Structure formats: structure tokens, C-alpha cells
Amino acid sequence: MQILYFTRRYSVHDQRFLNALSSEGFDINLLILEQGHNQSTPFVPPDNVSIVPWAGSNHPLNWYSGFNLKKKLQKIIGDLKPDLIHAGPIQSCAFLGALTGFHPFVSVSWGYDLLLDASRNGINYWVTKYTLRNSDVMVGDCQTIREKAEYFGMKSDRIVTFPWGINLDHFNLLETEKVENREFTLLSTRSWEPVYGVEIIAHAFVKAVREIPQLRLVMLGNGSQKETLFRIFSQENALEKVVFVGQVEQADLPRYYQNADLYVSATHSDGTSISLLEALACGTPALVSDLPGNKEWISPGVEGWLFPKGDPDGLKASIIHAWQNRERLADMGKAARSLAESRADWNRNFPKLLEAYRLAQGFYTH
To answer: Using CA atoms, how far apart are residues 145 and 293, in angstroms rounded to an integer?
Structure first.
């Protein structure tokens, strides 16, 4: 089967999808909408994936430029004659795919597209409904996304829930015991952007470290909130308690989770968070905002804890609670790993995507 795989930008998630699809023997044509725009992942698709040359868009897509790109996409479809189109996120690549009228067509939600972008304005609302109405099947990564898709008019029997999962061999438990009486390490891995609430973590940490000097915060990544973060830490004389690591390669990520006592995320929006799954797989208990997507993974006191979204005081109290209960973390880490093994295994979850393809072909055929 020949698949046209249409994505907004090439990311580590696309790389995972393409590697898996390639191993199944599909003929894949890769089309990237915003070529060269904020490219953060090395562009190394599998050898048997053909990259489709086209003008695309060198700037972020907006709804009116989408109608101009429709004809270019239709020509590509006419030349390639794919058996199926896989496209996402919803308001960009999937919308363009829907505009062409091609079937069978599988739209893939990336989480933020339905949780945030879909309701950002009236145009996005219409684009979302149009895209889902013209999709044979939609793929989402959790129950929260399923419910959002149904709200926008997608029929339940045309939604496939596919938690993307992770490589459990790569993200694994630390073989040696953590050293006692060392600093209690919190780990943040999300980008420094407003949606991820990193300033909430900063405000909570500076308050918590006043009461518990043994705390240390390790922050991976970078982003537009850099100045805000440094100002918060500097004003509270907490900079020496924070380790700024920068961007980390996938190969090096596991050791950061393994060496942390607690994974922390204060994001304002999430479906199934890959970062959360990575932490769980490494046996690192998680302290995350009480979003519906996070509640699907974290049972308070079992694999970690939840705190009220957007509440730095609530997060501070939860950090202190975790430190006071640090003797339980080893058992919680084992529970976290067990959960990851049962529900977050990429190899076990991937067939759900193939199920979506078969379902789309069946709907279109009949």
C-alpha cells in the first residue's frame, strides 16, 4: 500500500511513525508543509521513504493560504496516486488534505490542535469541524481527544484511540539504587513556552526551596520564557539551586529521568504526554497538573501526584508532600514502570494505527 504521509514539520514523533510504517513494508511518500521552519529534529527519514519535493509553505500556515496550497496538494496526489493519506495536525495538514476531497483519508490529532487551537477563534472552530467531517477516520492519543473530536462532530465509530507510546528498551529503570542523603532532584523537560507552564514550576520551586534547602531543579530545553524564568530564580536567590541543561538528544534523555526523584510538569494543556510516559518508563514518579489527559495515567499516591492546573501554591505544597514521602518513591517508581509496560509500549500500541488505516479503507469502500 502506498501512503502519503503529510506532516507540518519533521519531528522525532514523525521519525517514530515513519520508522514503524517503513518496517511494515509500506511505500511511503513524505510531504512536509512548513519546510525549513523551526526545524528542530535532524532530517533523517528511513531509506525507503521518498521525500516529496514541493514549494509547500516556508511560513506558518493560516487558513487563507491553505486554499492556495490546495491546488499544489491536489497535483501531488494526482501524480503519486496514493492508496491512503495520513495527515496531521488537524488545522494544518489535515485541513489541507480534507480540502482536496481525497479518500481514504486519516486525520491525526497532535493533541494541542483539538485541546487548544480548535477553540481559539471562529475560523479554527469551522476548520476543525470541516476537517473531521471530511475524514474517514481520526486518530487521537487518549480519551480526552476522543471526547473533543466527538464534540466537534466526529462519529465515535470513526475514532481510533492510539496512545503513541515510547521505546521501553530505551527509556528504562536505573539499574543501581539512588544514593541516599543527596539533593532531592526535580526534573522539568518541557519547552519554555507559555502553554507548558514552566513559570508555574519556577514560582513553586523558589517557595518550596525556602522550606527545603535540599531541593534541586533540573530544567531541560529552552524557549521564549527564558528571561521570565531567570528573573524569577534571580529575584528569589535560587539560581544556584537550578541546573539549566539546554536541549538534550533522545539518546541522552533516559539518564536525566533516571537520576531525578520526581518528574514535574505544569502544562496547561496535554493529551497523552510523551514526556510523562518517558518518566514513568524510567521509574520516575510524576507530579503533574490535573488535566484530564494526565488523570488517565496518574493515580494520586500510586505513580505520582496531581496538583491544580495553574496553581504555583498547589504545586509547592505537592513538592513538599513528595519530599516528605520520599521513602515511598522507590515503590511508586516501580508502579510507574509497570504502568508504562502495560499501556505505553510503542510496539504494542502501534497496530492501532494500522487498524485506523484498515477502518478508513473499509468506510471508503462501502
So the answer is: 8
DSSP H or E run through 312: helix 312-324
pLDDT(10) > 80: yes
d(CA 30, CA 11): 12
Preceding omega of 104 cis (within 30 degrees of 0)? yes
Question: Are 95 and 136 contacting, i.e. CB atoms less than 8 angstroms apart?
Answer: no
> How many residues make up the chain in this entry?
366
- Residue 306's nearest CA partner among 325, 321, 323, 327 is 321
In degrees and rounded to multiples of 5, residue 80 shows phi and psi of: -85, -35
CB 293 within 8 A of CB 270: yes
User: Which amino acid would we find at residue 145?
Assistant: I
The residue ranges of DSSP E strands in the chain, in sequence order, are 2-7, 27-32, 49-51, 84-88, 105-108, 137-140, 159-161, 184-188, 215-220, 242-246, 262-265, 286-289, 304-307
**Domains plus CATH for the chain?**
2-165+346-365 (3.40.50.2000), 184-343 (3.40.50.2000)
Strands 304-307 and 215-220: unpaired
Helix axes 198-211, 312-324, angle to 10 degrees: 50
Please give the span between the terminal C-alpha atoms of the chain, in angstroms, as a whole number: 19
Write out pLDDT tens, residues 154-185: 999 999 999 999 999 999 987 655 555 579 99
Where does the pLDDT of residue 65 fall: very low under 50, low under 70, confident under 90, or very high at 90 and above?
low
Per-residue CA distances from 287 to 206, 307, 316 (Å): 16, 7, 11
Tens-digit pLDDT profile for residues 260-288: 999 999 999 999 999 999 999 999 999 99
Q: What is the pLDDT of residues 129-139, one digit of tens each?
A: 999 999 999 99
Burial grade of 125 (CB within 10 A; 0-12, 13-18, 19 or more): middle
